[in-house]
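for the writeup, i need someone to sanity check this before i put it in the appendix. the sequnce is what the collaborator sent (i think, or maybe the updated version? ugh). structure was predicted straight from it, no edits. if anything looks off just tell me and ill rerun, i have time this weekend
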Amino acid sequence: MPPSSSSRKSSPENEYAMSLAEADMSLDNPHNATLDTTTTTTTHHHHHSFLHSSPSPSNNKATAAAQPLFESSSNNNYSKWNVAEARMELRKASKITSTYGLKLSTKWICEQLIGLPPSPPPSSFNGTNHFFTPFEEENENDATLYAKSLLDLGEYERAALVLSSGNNASAVAGSTIPPPLEELSSLGFFIRCYALYMAGERRKGEDVEELREPLERTKLRNPNLTQLSHELYDYYTSGALDAFGLYIYGVVLKELQNTPSASSTTTKIRPSSSVHHAQDIVPPPSPHSILLQSILQFPYNWSAWLDLSELCVQDSTIHSDVEEVLRPILGHWMYHFFCVHLFLENQVNENAIMVMEKLIHGTTATDTIDHETNRGAGGGETLSTTGMFVQSPYIQSQLAVAHYNLRDFDEAQRHFIALSERDSLRLDQMDIYSNILYVKEDRVSLSQLAHRAVKIDKYRPETCCIVGNYYSLKAQHEKAVQYFQRALKLDRSYLSAWTLMGHEYVEMKNTAAAIEAYRRAVDINERDYRAWYGLGQTYEILNMLFYALFYFNKAAALRPYDARMWCAIGNCYLGLDRRADAIRSYERAVSNNDGEGIATKKLATLYREDGDVERAARCYLRHLELRFQAQQVNPSPDGGYPGENDLEVVVNSVQVDAPDAEALLYLAYYHRDNGEFETAAMCCSRLLEYPGREKEEGKALLREIRSRMDRRGGGGDKEGGGGTSKRGKSSSSRNSRRMMDSSMSMDRSRIGGGNDNSLDSSAVVESSFEFSP
């Protein structure tokens, strides 16, 4: 997910959040792990074959393949979206996914259904772009209906056994389930496979709890995967799998691919119902090709899209294949939802927001939407009432997550407040909202959120994390750890709880427990940069700088445009006395909008010690500008300079603390040496307000400057032209300031490799781990 949203292990629908592998993300080109958004609006008029065509049938099954639930006409055009048509499709899709027991997909579909604006009744709309083939619940046999009821109650092994052949009375829990019944319908076969998969997942979770060794935990796998892969392969080769049979087959292949101990199983598969000849041993199809077939047959199964996105994150080389196979539906809004999820997973949050704006406004709006004029629709208190998915809770929650990832906490908070007002009992993603309140130190709002969450459901992992954040903000770290541990008892795969618990252990100086918590988080999701960053911080506390540098580099590989990652790397290099590497790291941080001013301050000190006066002055000035921006009630949205008289505004308005006093004193000497006495005197006058050694040094320097001004001016200030001379000197100071600004911009371009567009579209920043969850 999002990096930050919760993921329950109650079905294979959210298995994608359990074991995301590290994508091949280049530091120079972060878009390697994302799909190109320019393809999402392309219109196509013809079909393309699957990546791997199904093998010719090797045996005959009693049950023929079900007709596709979704068909595409050769003249389909998805470039124009229709609300009434989308409503009709979503209603039908919700009934189908509910029949197949995919609860989370059904919930997601219905969230988009209520997000559509009012439109004529679906029965009065006769869509021609695409259609569902007639789907009616077949006259299922009694065993299928019984198995479905057991599946709904979570009795997975019993459900699978009911639809299996042989003597069920002699079956033992945990033993191999007999083969499926003959004459099973597509629904019955899916329910059996789904139940067998979930039974294995439950058993794997129980075994994980009994192991303490991290390496042993990673070797565990679903014990039913091998049996499922053979049975599904037989049905696949005979063409007997419908869209949902293909989906569960893709999930099984994905899990086998992600399990190291299963390499021997996934290499070759021998059909179990045919004569075993050498030519019968064939490699299995790839997981993404099977999922793509399922999506093309039924594109409304959100679970299939999530599993496909996990594969795309793991392996960026399949992106071209995915786009080629999905070419018939690239203009469909389901593909846009897929792009949003994939962009958020890869931390390309600006692109995700852009696609979500299109989903809100629909295809009737212009492709380029001004963000400021769109705040009422795409962000703010409420969404608009005209467009496409204008009231979708899912889109609004993802907008909140995207702005949270961009450190736009005010905008993210507005989205969460709007979600709470529309659905006061909602707990999904509210733990992220508690992170925002923690960072903003809004104790009152966080307390209210915690009380509300406890009243809704005290035994939800989100509730436990919210309460844990509340106690952490009150500096009651032991109590916070208790609530994070309670969240993990409810869901051992709840990533946020492991990471937050690691932060609490760091605060408690329990470094061993912190390392264990962060490692468990990495085991669940190798792309969680917060856990890697936390490991780096912990080893930095232990003064094991080589270890810390390794983990900080892992975090920077996942977030190459996060200035805090490069500041941490620079600190390690500085501790290892590698000044050149430290300077390069801090310069990389400055080029990626170091909003906290840490890198500029460090660079200024290093340049000053190296005798590079010009660069040191630029860094000190940039540090003051960042401090000025941070102290404003309504800072400039682009993080730029205040205005025409920015130097005077910054120097006269910034609140002087210890780092600022050092910067002002250096700039005073710098401008004095350059003959800009008025600017130097202005810097010195601000030091008179600071109660430190810089105050006395500033007084002495101010007296010297005034003496020089008197000798040079020769009483000119008393004449009418004196004021003009002073204004001319201020103009000279501003010109010098503009020249330094231009030089700083050139340095940024040099550091960033000249790829300004990629920097702008992927520069994403997160809240500091030193004072936030």
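The first helix runs from residue 83 to 99. Strands lie at 71-72, 130-131.
thx in advance!!
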